[in-house]
Amino acid sequence: MVGAGAAGIAAAREARSLGLRVRVLEARGRIGGRALTDHSLGTPFDLGATWLHAAQSNPLVPLAEAAGVELFDHDSVRDSRVWMGGRWASEAEMRDYGAAERAWHQAVRLAAARPGISLADAAPRGGFWDATLTHWEGPVIAAAEARDIDLGDYLATLLNGSNLLPRDGCGHVLGVLAQGLPVTLEAPVERISWAGRGVRAEGPFGALEARAAIVTVSTGVLAGGGIRFDPALPDSTMAAVHDLPMGLLTKIGLPAAGEDRLDLPPFGGLERRLEEGERAMTFVAWPFGRDHLQGFAGGSLAWDMAREGDEALVDLAFSELRRIYGARADRALRRADAVLSDWGRDPWALGAYAALRPGRGGAREALSAPMAGGRLMLAGEACHPNLAGTLAGAWLSGAQAARQAAGALGMPAGGSSSA
Ligand SMILES: Cc1cc2nc3c(=O)[nH]c(=O)nc-3n(C[C@H](O)[C@H](O)[C@H](O)COP(=O)(O)OP(=O)(O)OC[C@H]3O[C@@H](n4cnc5c(N)ncnc54)[C@H](O)[C@@H]3O)c2cc1C
């Protein structure tokens, strides 16, 4: 396996359960990939994946529960408030927002009859809440601008069901599930040769030969040529890689300076109503009663911040909060101790998760198509048809690739081979 994120861990566990001998090569000095729980604020703070979405169909939920991980239903305490510019939205306005959201989704679903269009083409415009809703569904949720998202894929990957928060973080969950797997850290794979009957991975660690390989790096890493394939990956695979460019979602953790909790309850959501073309950050306050505020910037705003640097993101977060709280925001939060993610510049991710370009349906399938009769497979969040962009999708894709590789190797149940 190349990569010890959700897909690589799932692939390794599945392959082992099918009797294959496995080795996971991971470029970083840690496992978890885009699930990373930071502790520098004194409590767990996920810099990447945060929620176990679609809990009812999420394979990580029963695994985490069986491992004794505590999961909390975030939806049971959702309490969002919306800044209208100068004041909070009233209860009546929040009801209106809810109705507008239902109408927005209905309009978008109706537009599905026009294949190949973008989410922006389908999204209603001009209504009081439309720009806010389109910004939420595009940059905030899908980490990409609505104009850059294929409508059919957006609808196919809409998440249903509850959203659970692991109390100790998603990075912790993957750490628990990876226990006992043979992972070599700080082993960046630079070249994969797959011309012969086996597969050979090379890097500063030396060379490793196996009968099959599952490569779980992001489409950002693949598009950037982070691994040289010999022979080159098929044109159809590379086309799929380019049709699934990485979006970006950036997170910031802002610790409280004192007792002031900005009148927000634990888990309180904070957003503002937007005009067409406006971009903004959103916030979740004091998760589990912990003393930090989480901020999110997505899509083009996040890419701009990645280009401008960490200070720009901190400035942005404070300028958003000052709109509401004025100088009180500066007194309530410790700017110097902010914790930030940097997935856009991280060479082992180069983004947060992939969004399908409009009109490029079929790319996720093409990306996960077995190569060399199943001896070389790509897996990861971008490969999953319905749970793309999530830990669950990455997990299921990795496990599926392992089963396909085992089948390609003609593994008799309980036999032994290497992948
Ligand atoms: C800010 C943010 C918020 C998110 N929020 C959520 C959420 O709330 N819920 C959710 O379900 N999902 C969320 N996601 C998405 C989720 O994190 C990803 O879908 C998932 O972690 C991807 O797993 P993966 O195994 O496909 O890829 P990765 O986790 O990227 O794993 C690939 C691994 O390959 C390694 N690698 C890269 N190049 C090489 C190389 N050359 N050699 C060896 N190893 C290499 C990487 O270091 C990495 O460990 C979020 C992501 C981000 C960034």
UniProtKB/TrEMBL annotation:
It catalyses: L-tryptophan + O2 = indole-3-acetamide + CO2 + H2O. Pathway: Plant hormone metabolism; auxin biosynthesis. It is an enzyme of class 1 (oxidoreductase). Keywords: Auxin biosynthesis. Its EC number is 1.13.12.3. Gene3D superfamilies: FAD/NAD(P)-binding domain (3.50.50.60). InterPro entries: Amino_oxidase, FAD/NAD-bd_sf, Flavin_monoamine_oxidase. Residues 7-87, 160-404 form the Amine oxidase domain. The keyword Isomerase does not apply. Belongs to the tryptophan 2-monooxygenase family. This is Tryptophan 2-monooxygenase. It comes from Pararoseomonas baculiformis.
